[in-house]
Design brief:
single chain, 5-stranded antiparallel β-sheet, elongated
Amino acid sequence: MLTQRQSQILRLLVERYVDDGRPVGSRALANRDDIDWSSSTVRAELASLEEEGFLTHPHTSAGRVPTDTGYRFYVERLLAHQDRLPQPASNELGISRMRREVDTAIRETTTTLSQITDLVALVTAPPLHTATIHRIEVLRLQPKVAMVMVIASNGGVTKRVFTFNEEVDTGLVEWAASYLNERLSGLGLGARMAVDRLRDPGLDESAEDTLYVDGTARLLSEEHLADLPHADELMRALERRVNVLRAMRTALDRRSVFVWIGGENPAPELRSVSVVGANYGLGYRNLGSVGIIGPLRMDYATAISNVRGAAGELSRFFETVYDE
């Protein structure tokens, strides 16, 4: 258990290191106007924090930098007092101006969150089994060709074309649309009745369909690359997406913001970075997650605030979608 002074020194050190990326020495902290302790006192506390695993130093004469444990202690204090976090960039994150298509809302949220944080942004779409059939359309494309289009409540659209030996009557097309909507509208896509009638490889999920990623190039910028010891491995994981999606879904039952720091990440490919995430959904169930991936040295307060804000915006958006 850290003393109040140790907690304050650790917080100040993390914030200083996040700000400029240079190891922090005792003199840099002792010279602050809001610190009343001498340089020798601060030096002793830093040594104690290092012994307890919260800090480390690159080499003997350097200042200290936070360890994963140090970041975890700092983040837990942020999560315990979320009312003190900076306000999210709500004007930029708002999706009320977006078109009502779910795909558009998720893509724009991902892009905007990446731009705001200057990091990789992730959004997982609602899993297929959580969606219901919103509407079915039957269209006569040619005299002998008809198309059935299934529109899901999560924004997914599946099309299937049928070719017949004889010309399709337009009245029959209208009847088929009415019949299918009456029988299937509102059913979950995972329901046996719906699956039996709409069996189609197009209904299968893939990581490409359900994980939206934006901003990978930002992590390769000069500003961040020095803080990413395994950048190539991370980029490969983001390209494959499957393990990243699986990791995000392990947190789908969380009720609040979650933070994985370094080795805490469930996906091995992410254990050199940190993930800040939050779930969005309806009042009775979570539908997906919003998150950002960045180096261990990131502005956690701003990241938590904006991720939480983006999740809130998507929750409000999906409340209108699923009520339709």
